Automatic annotation (TrEMBL):
InterPro entries: Endo/exonu/phosph_ase_sf, Endo/exonuclease/phosphatase. Pfam families: Exo_endo_phos_2. It comes from the Eukaryota. This is Endonuclease/exonuclease/phosphatase domain-containing protein. Residues 41-164 form the Endonuclease/exonuclease/phosphatase domain. SUPFAM superfamilies: DNase I-like. One of its GO terms (molecular function) is catalytic activity. Signal peptide: none annotated.
Length: 285
């Protein structure tokens, strides 16, 4: 892809059974294998304001899928993203109707898609007004697996778009956990004694002038096996918390804290800029 993508899909490392496809910089797709229930296809879309590339891409992919769904091992599909289109169906009774917004309505009818966000839910915070332009569309039969779909302020960072959390009840495959060793806590002295005690005399490790490949493999494997046994006995396994985040630092926490502080001030005051003062610091820290 030559241009910078405008949509991303992040997948948990422990999640298995998925495949990612890039249709364009404005549309990506994730196939997720569901245990005993086929697959779910997730489409993440960006439709640029005043342009229709993202919308046309969605129609070109979703409509053929909806027509062939009965012949495919697919449980359902979801379409999420920033459509940059206003309509009372999702924006509430006072929302306007943008050009080509009927294409989305027709797509929902043709592909049997339901809107999961409550109509009128504001997804983007503007200076003068809040709007509903981010959508979560899903096949109607998937609604029985829906647990919740709503704005999630606890996951908000510094975007003018509010995060949407969608939870569905499905069972997925997981990657087998590989536990790491705490190498700094290895008892080096005992390890060396263990290896020395379990290795044969040096004379027995020497090779003939013209050793066979099989003999070389046997000697090397014996050395490796002895070392691995010493590691297993004398190097403890790490026991990370399920909430541990690799690479996370205090600087990351401070950056999020500051971002939240500024967001709360902007949300309450709708000011583009401000100057620090005692009132601001007292209220928003």
């Amino acid at each position: 892809m030559d241009e910078q993508p405008r949509v991303y899909i992040f997948v948990l490392k422990r999640l298995a059974g998925w495949t990612h496809y890039t249709h364009s910089r404005d549309m990506q797709e994730l196939w997720l294998k569901i245990i005993s229930a086929g697959e779910i296809r997730l489409f993440n879309v960006y439709n640029k304001l005043g342009q229709w590339g993202g919308l046309d891409m969605v129609k070109g992919v979703i409509l053929p899928v909806s027509k062939q769904r009965h012949t495919l091992l697919i449980i359902s599909y979801l379409v999420v993203g920033d459509f940059n289109l206003h309509h009372p169906a999702w924006g509430g009774d006072m929302a306007c109707e943008d050009p080509r917004v009927d294409d989305v309505i027709e797509l929902m009818d043709s592909a049997d898609l339901d809107l999961w966000l409550e109509p009128g839910t504001k997804t983007r915070m503007g200076y003068n007004s809040n709007t509903s332009i981010d959508l979560v569309l899903a096949l109607r039969v998937l609604e029985e697996r829906l647990i919740s779909c709503d704005i999630s302020l606890e996951n908000h960072t510094d975007s003018d778009h509010l995060p949407i959390k969608t939870i569905i009840d499905v069972e997925t495959e997981v990657v087998e956990e590989v536990r790491r060793r705490l190498w700094k806590k290895m008892d080096t002295e005992k390890f060396l004694k263990f290896v020395s005690a379990n290795l044969p005399d040096v004379a027995n490790l020497l090779l003939d002038p013209t050793p066979t490949p099989t003999l070389i493999d046997q000697k090397v494997n014996f050395l490796l096996e002895t070392v691995q046994q010493g590691i297993q006995v004398l190097t403890p396994l790490a026991k990370p918390s399920k909430w541990a985040r690799f690479g996370w630092t205090d600087e990351c926490s401070e950056a999020i804290k500051e971002s939240w502080r500024l967001f709360r001030f902007w949300r309450d005051s709708k000011h583009d800029s401000f100057q620090s003062n005692d009132i601001f610091n007292e209220k928003y820290w």
